[in-house]
Structures are given as structure tokens and as C-alpha cells.
Amino acid sequence: MFAYDRDVAERYPGIRAGLVHATGLANGPSAPALLGEYRAEQRAAFERLTATPLADLPSIVAWRRAFTAFGAKPTQYRNAAEALLRRLDKHGDIPSISTLVDLGNLVSIRYAMPVAVFDRAGVAGSITVRFARGDEPFTDLGSTEVSHPDPGEVVFVDEEDVVCARRWCWRQSAQSATSASTTDALIVVEGQHDAAAQDVEAAAGELVALLGAHQPEGRTSTRLLSGRAVVELRSAARGDADDVAEIWRLGWRDGHEGLVPQELVEIRTDESFRTRAASRAHDTTVATVDGAVAGFIMVVDDEVEQVYVSSAHRGSGVAKALIAEAERQVKANGHDKAWLAVVAGNTRARAFYERAGWDDEGPFDYAAATERGPVTVPCHRYTKKV
Q: Taking the complete model, does pTM exceed 0.70, yes or no?
């Protein structure tokens, strides 16, 4: 649902994020109780700023340093928390917007850390934080005009490469912003200062508590994330079969349904994935993050037959590690060129392989093996010298 690209994680190893996924929401105007808490926190934050200038807050110092590192002048482009606190310091208050925005802003000014609230309906799949190429589309809040980020700036992008936020935590997109119709939201709080791990965990906990108090019909789940996910590769064990089968099942349906013959969809039952995962353990390599299976590959001779990553780890570097290992295995099998088949309509997968240096040799008919015999699937053949 949210991940840091490996290049960003390596450049900013101290980044920490708290993720709160909330469903069953009703995002109307803030109720009097929430408004009371929000105004009280504004008064408290205002008093803190009289004791410690904004520019001296460790969290703000860290974000200014991060912005400078990717070429954004921090006095021209201010992170969301700094922008809120500057307004509070100058005007004495921050206007109420809506329940979700207000509770996010309340936690943001309390911890001096940016809090973004994304409407999941306006985001295609998972969000990845990465460096921009410069051609990704972005529509600013309150605008219908499409612009593009500067090459090299840190952006949030969804699975269709649409920018959800520019300059890391400077400006959110119109599509991803919450509205009165928001029922499903992802709330992200981030920090880069020395105490970020503790502060992010505390802030995420307070977001959950606020949602529980002011959105009692909602449901929440949380996850804490560090920028640098440690990806480990190993041969699959028999005990991995259930995890591999579930990643395979969900990934296959995501990338194939509606794009392959219905005959194959009917054959690929839930049980079929469990059976194949168990029988293919001998030629399966799994990637793990914090001990949990995050993805896998299956290599047969010179063919990279299967590459799947769980949705929670897309964009985190797991896929890059797996495809590099697949290329290594093909070379170890005595070949100088690897090949794989990608369903013609699976544009996300095709874009990934092309970014990884694979060449599209054009369409061909792939014979997908099944227990009923081969099923012909329109695919593109990709190759890479190894």
C-alpha cells in the first residue's frame, strides 16, 4: 500500500513512516469535540513556538536538510508541517477543513511532522516514494491543469505513475485529496530526525485514537515503516508454500484477469495456486523482509517463469532484488540471455521490465501449462543479456 523506492531509502536511510489505513469513514465537518481538541492543540503549539523557534525544531531542521538534498529550496518549498506551523505562528490559528484533515493537522502540529491524508479512491493501487523522472502527471489542489515534477525531486506516485504528492511532503494532488465522499483513507506521518522512530510511532497511535473517538464506525490498521527495507533472498522451504500461493494468487488475478482467455481464469482456482506452490518449492526463490515472505521467482533453464511481489512491498526494492537474482540464475544455468513472457495488456509489469533493462521482442503466443493441457495466451516476449 505504501513503500519507499530503494534509491530514496539509500539516500535517506533515517526516514520513518507511520501508516494508518482507515475504512468506513464519514468525512463531514469536524464535530464540536474535535474542534475543541484542535483549537486547544493550536494554542499549545503556539506557546511552544514562543519557546523554541520553528527553525530550531529538530524535525523541521531534518526536513529542510532533506529538501535541500534533492534540490528544493526549503525556504521556498516548505514541508507540510512547517507550512502549518508558520501559518499558526503568523495568524494565530489554522482554519477547520473537515474531520480527516483536521485530525491530521492536529497531529502534525503536535509533533511538527508532516501528515498526509490520501483518499484511496483517488489513488491507483499502492503509493511509492521515489525520485521523479520529470514526465509524471500532477494536478495541484484547486486546479485542473496538469503539470510535471522536476527530474530528481522526491514524489509520491501511484501504480499508474500519477503523482499524489510533489517535493515529498510539500503539495498533495487534487485526485488524492479527501472530500465529503471519502470513506477509505491512508494517513501517512513521516519524520527524519533522530527521534523520528519514537515520534512517528506515537503520532500514529494518536491518529488511531482520534479516529476511534471521532469516527467510531470506522476501522483502522497501522504499520510502521523504515526507509531501508532489508531484503533477503533464499531458496523456498516447504513451509513457505502458503505464503507463495497467496502472493501468486493475488498477483496473478491483478495482472491477468480480463487480459487472458476465460478458460485459463477458470482453471486458475485458489486451490491450483496452493498445489503449484507446494510442487514448485524446489525451483522457487523467495524474498523476505523482516522474516516475512514478500515475493518470489521461479526460474526454469533460461526462462524467468514467475516473478511476483506482494502488494505491500511493491516499489520497495523487492522486485529489483528478485529480477536481479533471476538473471543471475539464468546465467548460472549456462545461458547468456534470459527471457520471460508478459501478458500483452499488463502494462505495469511491462513498464517494470523495460525500466530494468529488458527488451521487448514483440508479441507471441505463450503456451501456459495447466492440468488440462496448454492454454494459448497472447503475450510479449522480453529478453535480456545476462
A: no
Domain extent listing, the chain: 2-226, 231-385
What local confidence, expressed as pLDDT, does residue 323 receive? 95
Convert 1-18 to b/e letters by CB count within 10 Å (16 or more is b).
bbbbbbebbebbeebbbb
Summarised one tens digit per residue, pLDDT across range 293-346 is 999 999 999 999 999 999 878 777 789 899 999 999 999 999 999 999 999 999
CB 102 within 8 A of CB 213: no
Q: Which residue ranges of the chain lie beneath pLDDT 70?
A: 228-229
User: CATH classification of 231-385, choosing from 3.30.40.10, 3.40.630.30, 3.40.309.10, 2.30.42.10?
Assistant: 3.40.630.30
Tens-digit pLDDT profile for residues 126-176: 999 999 999 999 999 989 999 999 999 999 999 999 999 999 999 999 999
Is 337:384 a contact under the CB 8 Å cutoff?
yes
In this prediction, residue 315 carries a pLDDT of 72
CATH number of 2-226: 3.50.40.10
* Alpha-carbon distances, residue 1 vs 54, 62, 125, 221, 373 (angstroms): 32, 25, 7, 12, 36
